[in-house]
Amino acid sequence: MSVFKLSATLNAHSADVRAVVAPFNDTIISASRDKTVKVWTKDGFWNPRDNFVSNGYVNSIAYDEKTTSVLSGGQDKLINVTDLYTSDVDPKFVLIGHESNVCALDCDGKEVISGSWDTTAKVWENNLLKYTLEGHSASVWDVKILGNGRYLTCSADKTVKLWSKDKEIRTFVGHLDVVRSLALLPDGVGFISTSNDGTIRVCDFDGKLVQELVGHESFVYDVIVLPNGDIVSAGEDRTIRVWREGKAIQVITLPCVSVWSIASLPNGDIVSGSSDGMVRVFTRDPERTATIDEIKEFNEAVESMALNAQSFDESKTQPPETLQRPGKKEGQVIVVKSPTGINEAHQWSEGKWNKIGEVVSGGTSDQKQEFDGKTWDFVFDVDVQEGAPPLKLPYNASENPYVAAQRFLEKNELPMSFTDQVVDFIAKNTQGVTINQASDTVNPYADVRRAKLVPHTDYLGFTSNNSDAILKGVKKFNETEKSFTDDELKLIENAFQTQDTEYLFKVATTILTNWTNALPGFDIIRLIISTVPAPPEVLGDVFDKGLTPNSPPILFMTFRIISNIFLNTTWGVPIITDTGITTRILNQVALTDGTGKHAVNVANALATVVLNYSAYACKYKSSKIADLVANTLKTKGLEVAQASSEAAYRLSVAWGNLVYVDGGLRAEFEQFKKGIKYNEQRFKDVFEDIAAL
User: Which biological process annotations from GO are given for this protein (predicted)?
Assistant: First the structure.
């Protein structure tokens, strides 16, 4: 049996390649988050040409052979129609109608169908809207035209739906998570669907499950059928898998994080688009195989990938001689301790073991990982909620794990009471990894040359983007408040996605003015206050309604808003540090919820505001603000610190700032210090720094 081998690597885009199509053997079209659509033509080598530059991410693409049109959709909510053979500044046509990101496209020469995050699919003919398919309750991730007025869609609501014109005629269930992609079986006998549950389901149109293909280790993003009938899938586990008769016959591992999209050339070659900005072509034809050097470079890139130890059971690490025995199935992965002591992951494919990376937690691999635009020694996956995608925890071996833990919890708006658990997690998953140390037993908490913790002059905030949860809350409470129509709720959802702060402030004002439970309105303001160009009129209402002890959730959300105002570099600091406003705010620093369920959130929000004011006093040598903060810390500091170690730590740093401004406050700080009972290294560090001031 011939296997796929690398044919070409196209250095395609400067960001993720989210979609690829391959209409001819010598033509590939790719779409990317770098906002471009590129056409690749092969004349000995693959040569690129910009086809279209969008105003936002391009996430979907299709080709209409009848009109030689390239259709692309994405973040701008539009479907732009360009010609394959030209580079268009402006599209030939623009199909307007979706209210959010266009993430799926298909066409058959007569009709076009599109899917969107706005929960609808739309059918177009002659560049005009023909049908809107409404029935899914979440984003429509893929769409297919079946012919004769029938269409197939899949959604984040875990379902696949069959439509006749604009009428839903059948719903297929079976996947346990978001359904990501669809492919049609030859001769119209059924369809294939993939899901975030890691499975691929082959069904007929009566809903009968014909096959379930299991092998991917994470989300399965795309699926196609080759001309010979083989099924090919790709996903978050950075693999392309080839299936025949229900079994994986080949697994191709790529040197990237995600394989987003795949397509088949008419000759049966596979095209992939991935998170590293590359388009790759794989072939079974020896005449089209890449050179020996190109294949070697590709294999070395795969081998050099650093793999998260959490993906493997390192207690089952095998000795090197295991690689002399055959694997149990295509795609099987084992961890082998190499003669040099490094744990290596090997995958059984093409009848042999292939190294696919080094397991980072057990060795000294210096492979760096990219996340949020920065380079890290580790980027861990942390499962915090069953059924939800893992959160990313970046960490550098040279930093204080408490800093990494706090950064992770703040970004994801998780309780700071989890700090010690996250620190323990980091310690367990970085055992043996040290920076510039001869010994492999150095305590990972020990910062031999750690940075001084005080004075601290950076402002902290609560900027996690939980817009989905806010929107869910708005919809829930609106059922009784009835302030927004269904159309207005869609506009609100769109405003979150497009970051329309002006519209969101109007929504927040309506909620604050009219709703009994105004918490969603406060949370909207918390989300956007740090970026708006001018102080919003609703800010007065926020202070009037939020600075009361009657509702702990409203109080801690108000203090989160105040923290985020410090982050607004245009107008925030001058307004929030006005003496009258500062006095009013600090007078409300009190642990209103005692030991109740909101105590930690209240304490952390209060402490952050106090810390920010102390940072201002320290940065600008403001004795007036320093006096107000000192009075707050002396009268309320220990009360707030009792509720949360994170609050206690931030208040300790605030005391350090004040002692830096006025050494005469050292005695009051020592009284506070005596009341701190948390036995954590970070407290020892900050107290040591304050003593040295």
Answer: proteasome-mediated ubiquitin-dependent protein catabolic process; ubiquitin recycling
DSSP line for 228-288: TS-EEEEETTSEEEEEETTEEEEEEE-SSS-EEEEEE-TTS-EEEEETTSEEEEEES-GGG
Helix and strand numbers, DSSP H then E, in the chain: 16, 36
**What CATH number is attached to the domain comprising 386?**
3.10.20.870
Q: Which of 279-283, 399-403, 483-487 has the lowest mean pLDDT?
A: 399-403
CA-to-CA separations, 420 to 45, 376, 402, 415, in angstroms, rounded: 55, 21, 8, 11
For residues 3 and 218, the model is more confident at: 3
Q: Is the pLDDT of residue 89 over 50?
A: yes
**8 A C-beta contact, residue 175 and residue 161:** no
Q: Tell me, yes or no, whether 32 and 102 share the same domain.
A: yes
Asked whether residue 329 carries a pLDDT value surpassing 60, the answer given is yes
566-583 average pLDDT score: 90
Helix (H, G, I), strand (E, B) or coil at 372: coil
In a domain, 477, yes or no: yes
Contacts of 235 (CB under 8 A, 6+ apart): 194, 198, 216, 218, 219, 220, 221, 222, 258, 259
**Separation of alpha carbons 496 and 534, rounded Å:** 19
Tens-digit pLDDT profile for residues 39-50: 999 988 899 999
Tell me the two tokens of residue 284: 């079974």
User: Do 594 and 601 contact (CB within 8 A), yes or no?
Assistant: no
Is residue 538 within 8 A of residue 508, CB to CB? The reply is: yes
| CB contact set of 296 (below 8 Å; sequence gap of 6+) | none
**pLDDT, average across residues 620-628:** 90
Residues 139 and 284 in one domain: yes
What does DSSP say about strands 58-64 and 45-53: parallel, antiparallel, or unpaired?
unpaired
SS3 content of the chain, % helix, strand, coil (to 5): 30, 30, 35
Cβ neighbourhood burial of 352 (10 Å; 0-12, 13-18, 19+): exposed
CB 206 within 8 A of CB 188: no
d(CA 687, CA 97): 60
Domain of 337 in residue numbering reads as: 306-362
Q: What is the DSSP string of 118-142?
A: TSEEEEEETTEEEEEEE--SS-EEE
Domain C-terminal end among 549, 576, 603 = 576
The two structure tokens encoding residue 54: 């969008």
286: pLDDT strictly greater than 50: yes
Place of tokens 């070409």: 8
Residue 394 tokens, joined: 């970046």
Tell me which of 317, 337, 362 is where a domain ends: 362
Contact present, 548 and 559 (Cβ < 8 Å): no
The pTM of the full predicted model, rounded to 2 decimals, is: 0.53
Report the range of poorest mean pLDDT among 33-37, 269-273, 424-428: 424-428
Question: CA 673: distance to chain centroid?
Answer: 39
> Tokens at residue 265, please?
């050339």
Rounded Cα distance, 345 and 335, in Å: 4
Distance, CA of 144 to CA of 179 (rounded, Å):
14
